[in-house]
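Friendly challenge for the regulars: who can give me the structure tokens for this chain first? No prize, just bragging rights.
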Amino acid sequence: NVGGQTTGYRLDPASGWLAFQVPKAAAAGPQTLTLRGAPQHLRLNVLTVPPGTDALIYVRPDAAKTVQAEYTRRLQALSETCAKNCPAEVQTVLKRLGTQPSPTLTPITPPVKGQGVTPGLAARVAVTPPQVIRAPLINLNTLKAANLTQLLNPAARPPAAPADSICSALAGTVPTTGLPLGQVLTLLELLFAGDLQTDPTWSGHPTQSDAPYRGEKPSTVLQKVLKFRSGSGKGVTIHILDTATSTSDPFLMNGDINYYNQLYGNRPYHGRAIGEIAQAAASGAQLNYRQVCEKDGTCSTLKTVQALCAVAAEARRGGRHVVNLSVGGPNPTRGLELALREVAALGVPTAASYGNRDDCARLVAGDRCNHYPADWTRAFEFGPAVTLASRILRPTMLLSVAGWDIASGQLATYNRGVGNPGILSEAPSVQAPGEFWLGGYPYFGTSFAAPVVSGILANWMSCQPGVPLLPLITTPGQAPLAASVVNACP
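First reply, four minutes later:
Bragging rights claimed.
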């Protein structure tokens, strides 16, 4: 079973390897892999990415020459070793990759000299996010194969523990046309364990599925449903990583969307709408649009990592910053997690959309419905625990924002996992209103709840230290955000 989906398996007669096809309906992202009759419970990361997606690699600067010089030789050497004991499919991938030149590597961010590091802002409930801990560029258990250590490293010395941040890495693309992307990613990490990490080059954000507050401005909705007085966010920059640039937003929702039994066709914009909602909550904050997604909604892994590294560079120069990521997908891309840790360590919080119900469409009981980066929220917790209403809570630098229904005053039905019995998913960390009218169109979904939190964070940071504790309030009829946080500034 892959999640809740069943598939047959067999022993490959030539190699003795266990072989199976991932079910076409398998849910994307990390899923439990269970072999009937066997005791082990494994994890399999199911990739569902656009056809023709290439492999993205991140390489430590001190390993760049090794990767480029050894790329072809190691692929060919492993291909020769595999000739007798690897399945034919794996041999084909190795041979095809071995005919390609080594990938061109370019820095994710150009080196910057002579700049000090601005200490991260102290957290509201005690300690600062750790400044000295850097997320390692790689952390995986190297696959074992007969004679592989001697084959690839005659000195038999383990790779040194990496100390570079993701923002100092070099990146390159490996074409995978006609090859299974998952095998390519796995083989490259096997050959260069400790020197590189891999991701798919593309991911994507979720599509959006008597209407309340029809035609009202977002600021008016916030005033009515959250008792929001006003907020400036002065001195804080909100970075919108989405479909928009500072001057345009080419995104278009093709077809009709149904909002309260009325159809709205070809709704424009995504990132621009995010920015307008954030500005409604923090009118004095500066918006910095960074386009990481194309007009069809596919989002570049590398552009997202580069944008976050640019935010980190700005944070080192000073000022206060918030990141809004109303994008995401089921695959836990490593570069994204490491880059988010880079900005978190500098005191920069991120508001990420929780994911919508249509993310879980066609899944069955037992499948896990994933959405990253939101599902990493608890891995970004820090500081001492706080007891609130018999619950033990910690602040987090990565908020997973679910949508709150402004009509019913409770968790909205468009949220991921709602109305999907038996489907597994992580809980969000906070709720916020997720329905607004802009330019005569309704914008609803967790994408549009996240910028409410981004604006609230900007307001808080303009007059308070650190980041606020934002618990998940689920009592129907009760506002999802505490008034002490919403109206924290005079």
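The CA atoms of residues 16 and 468 lie 55 Å apart. The chain has three domains: 9-46, 55-203, 205-486. Your move, everyone else.
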